[in-house]
Amino acid sequence: MDFDLSEELIAARDLARDFAEKEIAPTVAKDDKERNFRKDLVLKMGELGFYGSVIPERYGGSHLGFLALVLITEEIARVHSAMRVFINMQVGPALALLQFGTEEQKKKWIPPLVRGEGIGCFAITEPEAGSDVAAIRTTAAKERDTYLLNGTKIFISNAPIANNALIYACTDRSQKHRGLSAFYADLNQPGVSRQSLETLGAHASPIGELTFQNFRIPAENLLGKEGEGFKICMWQLNQTRLSCAAGALGVARASREAAVNYANQREQFGQKIGQFQMNQDLIAQMVVHEEAARLLVYRAAWLADQKKPNNLEVSIAKYAAAETAAFAADAALRILGAYGYSTEFPVERYLRDAKSYQIVEGSSNIQKLIIAQDALGYRKANR
Ligand code: GRA
Question: Could you give the count of Cα atoms lying within 13 Å of 315 in the half-sphere of its Cβ?
Fold first, then answer.
């Protein structure tokens, strides 16, 4: 077992840290408050290679691997959780294309995603299909050389601004999950309408609805075969869950750092509040949960880099990191008291952003279901 990071990985991590501290941090409070979409920063992250670490060089990536992806994501999320969502929106579709696309599809769509020029998203969730992916109702009817899409997707990150989308829709409703198919589509076409939504956290990450009304997609945009959509979706979620777990880790770390800094400065009853054991209890728990989550996230990424199955390990990592982020942000707020509750300081943002990790990319309950069913021998997670 080797816990050392290679020089290459350290360089990737430090580049992301430096970028986050110098370019994201100065305006984070304003961007959060004003719900700003920072296209300039999204593009810069592309220029710096943050979307290409798991993509081969021939499609514009650096092929550094999944460990690089999680290191970069953690650094970005530590400074502004909303900004790490863009990494997931570029990397998720790019990886699905890489795994299931034709050579033509890969050449056409992956390089713009890696550069951050073609802003991506993935459209799974619907008003009646959240945790239950097989309940997707959006239809894709084949008409000669096109598919006609009808339906509504909701809570789609990047929906208000994305150029392209990886869309999951039913090509055969009677086949339930086996009747789902995946499509890669240009969203700037007739038949697509967008509606922004406001959420508790991740304010600088636009989110919304996508409604398709006779939205025509060329048949060549089908990813994989008809009926493979559920399989592609589960595969894709396994990648994007990992990236999301790394984001949660960043929020947990930011919360712990804020709590420690404050506890070392603030004096009450004649001493630094770090001297009080009730605060030490919270800080010790934050440290332990964060370290445990980090090891789990790194292990899941390492398995991906070894090309070994990691669905179970990703679910464990995502669950641990999401719960850790929520715990750590809450604990930081308790330690900072009114300064934590105040919108003048970042801890209330950590708490708002942390809550998203218990919901997105498969809620904590869905991860527990996957983990417990594997442990009980009902359904293997790694298959
Ligand atoms: O028997 P079969 O041949 O029909 O195959 C079954 C199974 O073997 C079938 O699918 C297969 N399968 C898989 N194959 C490969 C299932 N899981 C996998 C896998 N991992 N790899 C049906 O399987 P099933 O277990 O009976 O399916 P189910 O009970 O209908 O659903 C399973 C489950 C609950 C895990 C699934 O629906 C799920 O993961 N739900 C959570 C949905 C989710 O994560 N949504 C995320 C939305 S996107 C998002 O949040 C964006 C956030 C952006 C950001 O912040 O980063």
Answer: 22
